[in-house]
């Protein structure tokens, strides 16, 4: 579960082509990081995978199934946004429960999943608080908790740490890596931060103007960048 393939996927907004034909395979359980400068199409690519945008052409497959025209809720993926998108008037428990409630899941199963997510994210003591009573890092954990309880086949993160201060960012980076080790679920993680890419990824996808410049492990990209752009972005001495 969690294998995603893009076959000649393109995306245009009106006349403007943002993603030229792009092929990509994300393997089951992989931690894949999309990096590239602002405006290069990272969020668009993630939103295409999530189904929040329609592809202009090409095919997206999830676990062997054609998902190109599948609505987001059917894809079995969970997106974690940079802005957290929490409901301020609801408790942490209710925020985490929300997607399960919408899916009509039995209450005892909802409770079981909330307790498990809260435990793995150190939120057990905060379940009755509201988002406004939490720190930035705790809010980010709630957003992740809300994704975990859906037991998705892949997590999609769009610059989840960019609102946090530097120290907290390092902390959350480690927590997300630990979560990946524990769950072994596919994660696609968008960032413009080289350090995040180099320390978290199994596989880095370097994007420039919607094109894939290079795909490889952090070590491969560091040792054998294909061009100056990749070298510059990854920080290798070339
Ligand atoms: P990134 O996440 O890498 O910063 P985006 O995927 O947000 O880049 O944007 C890629 C390009 O697509 C940008 O030029 C942006 O202006 C354009 N774009 C993104 N969404 C839309 C939209 N809904 N309508 C028109 N242009 C868009
Ligand atoms: Mg973006």
Automatic annotation (TrEMBL):
GO terms for molecular function: ATP binding. Residues 4-234 form the ABC transporter domain. Signal peptide: none annotated. Keywords: ATP-binding, Nucleotide-binding, Transport. Belongs to the ABC transporter superfamily. This is ABC transporter ATP-binding protein. It comes from Salipiger mangrovisoli. The lineage of its organism: Bacteria, Pseudomonadati, Pseudomonadota, Alphaproteobacteria, Rhodobacterales. The chain holds residues 1 to 238 of 334 of the full protein.
